[in-house]
């Protein structure tokens, strides 16, 4: 009902008066945005439905939406700019965080981030349904959440020296586990487990790990590591 009322209000603005751009048969579509504050936290609803439900801002949230969307539609028809209105306060610096800061993570002498602590057996062959596990020396994932990349990746050999991404940590078959090798240890492990899917093609594979380490001075440096190649038959 809220969606229908919003569409009807905008349609009236676009088709009434002297507007020649939109005819009476215009079809209104609401394209929901993602990652927007008011939409994703709670739905908005009509005043009547609010009596048995809730919205984040008030019972009149829908009326506020309709008011502002009508302004946008009017500006679109008339070619006028629309004032952005007041901006919400930025309270980021006033928030209290109980999350401890990232401490410096160390590696054994002669070992770098991304080096293997546990590799697959040399010249190993696995079958579909097997669990392939490798362990890397790693740092804290909070140094870089890798939102535009991945912590774990399975690659398949596509040519003589060409590795092609096959699975990453979006796939349920690939698991990334970050842990300490011992209590109070300054070292960290990244365990990557690949449960080979039934749909995996036969070929030569390897498992890779990506991360970011933090120095004593607070600088972030990215690293990567790779397992030995193995066969899926």
From TrEMBL:
Keyword Signal: yes
Any one GO molecular-function label of the UniProt entry: N-acylsphingosine amidohydrolase activity
All copies of domain Neutral/alkaline non-lysosomal ceramidase N-terminal, residue ranges: 1-67
Reaction catalyzed: an N-acylsphing-4-enine + H2O = sphing-4-enine + a fatty acid
Homology family: Belongs to the neutral ceramidase family.
Annotated compartments: Endoplasmic reticulum; Golgi apparatus; Secreted
Every Neutral/alkaline non-lysosomal ceramidase C-terminal domain range: 69-232
EC numbers, comma separated: 3.5.1.23
Organism this protein belongs to: Penstemon smallii
UniProt entry keywords in alphabetical sequence: Endoplasmic reticulum, Glycoprotein, Golgi apparatus, Hydrolase, Lipid metabolism, Secreted, Signal, Sphingolipid metabolism
Protein name listed in UniProt: ceramidase
Coiled coil: none
Any Pfam family the entry gives: Ceramidase_alk
Gene Ontology CC annotation, any one: Golgi apparatus
InterPro entries, A to Z: Ceramidase_alk, NCDase_C_sf, NEUT/ALK_ceramidase_C, NEUT/ALK_ceramidase_N
Primary localization: endoplasmic reticulum
Protein's GO biological process: cellular response to oxidative stress; sphingolipid metabolic process
């Amino acid at each position: 009902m809220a969606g229908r009322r919003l569409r009807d209000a905008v349609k009236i603005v676009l088709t009434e008066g002297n507007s020649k751009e939109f005819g009476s048969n215009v079809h209104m579509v609401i394209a929901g945005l993602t990652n927007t504050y008011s939409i994703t936290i709670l739905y908005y609803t009509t005043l009547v439905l609010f009596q048995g439900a809730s919205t984040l801002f008030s019972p009149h949230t829908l009326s506020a939406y309709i008011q502002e969307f009508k302004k946008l539609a009017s500006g679109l028809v008339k070619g006028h700019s629309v004032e952005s209105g007041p901006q919400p306060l930025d309270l980021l610096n006033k928030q209290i965080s109980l999350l401890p800061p990232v401490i410096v993570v160390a590696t054994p002498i002669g070992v770098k981030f991304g080096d293997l602590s546990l590799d697959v057996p040399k010249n190993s062959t696995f079958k579909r349904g097997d669990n392939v596990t490798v362990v890397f020396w790693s740092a804290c994932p909070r140094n870089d959440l890798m939102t535009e990349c991945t912590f774990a990746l399975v690659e398949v050999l596509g040519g003589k020296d060409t590795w092609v991404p096959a699975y990453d940590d979006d796939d349920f078959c690939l698991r990334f586990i970050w842990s300490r090798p011992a209590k109070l240890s300054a070292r960290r492990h990244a365990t990557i487990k690949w449960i080979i899917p039934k749909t995996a093609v036969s070929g030569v594979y390897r498992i890779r790990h990506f991360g970011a380490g933090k120095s004593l001075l607070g600088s972030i440096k990215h690293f990567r590591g790779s397992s030995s190649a193995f066969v899926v038959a």
